[in-house]
Amino acid sequence: MNITVYGAASENIKNEYKEACFSLGKTLARRGHTIIFGGGKNGLMGAVARGAESENGKIIGIAPKFFKPDGVLFENCTEFIYTDDMRSRKELLEKKADAIIVLPGGIGTYDELFEVFTLNSLKQINKPIAVFDAQGYYQPLKLMLDYTVKEGFLAKEKMDCLFISNNDKEIIEYIEKESR
């Protein structure tokens, strides 16, 4: 299965996040899944890719051409696709996915999460979305989304589009089950 993984590119994060994402990458590769990601060598993107690489997993990086000279890309991808811009990158990451895993991240990751969450809830795509709540990172967001439902701004059944867990095995089991 092709699994798009969104996550932080920053190196200024705790090692616990990187270790959890490295482990996730290893497990995904062991189970025969292809990792599709934004191509970065740093942060949680890099950690997942290195985890998959350590198990000889298939890794597809997708990044805009302007990242190429910056030295920020993971060089050991099985395949690398260059796009003209960030919008094309996002479109390909979503299109190539059978399922999506969202790691902790910043505004770029939030943007990717909310875009696929919106598309799923509007039935424009039908892909399982799992949010990897490593170190409880997404608990404040979960509270906000629960509050959004409580206040009537989001229908409760729309929340069924997201599976949130801090357990990488549960994340993988969920996407495998929901992708059938």
Relevant terms:
180 residues; 6 helices
Description:
The protein has 180 residues and is of the alpha/beta class. The protein has helices at residues 15-30, 43-54, 86-95, 107-121, 139-150, 168-178, and strands at residues 2-6, 34-37, 59-64, 79-83, 99-102, 129-132, 162-165. It has a seven-stranded parallel sheet with strand order 4-3-2-1-5-6-7, sandwiched between helices. Helix 4 links the parallel strand 5 and strand 6. Helix 1 runs parallel beside helix 2. The longest helix has 16 residues, at 15-30.
Overall geometry comes to globular
Q: With helices defined by DSSP (H or I, 4 residues minimum), what is the helix count?
A: 6
Roughly how many Å apart are the termini?
Answer: 10 Å
Q: Helix- and strand-based class?
A: alpha/beta
Query: Helices and strands, in N-to-C order?
Result: EHEHEEHEHEHEH
What level of helicity do the residues show?
A: 40-55%
Report the mean per-residue pLDDT as an integer. Answer: 95
**Biggest pleated-sheet summary:** 7 strands, parallel
Give the uncertain stretches in residue-range form.
none
The strand line-up of the biggest sheet is 4-3-2-1-5-6-7
The percentage of residues in β strands lies in 15-25%
The count of β-strands is: 7
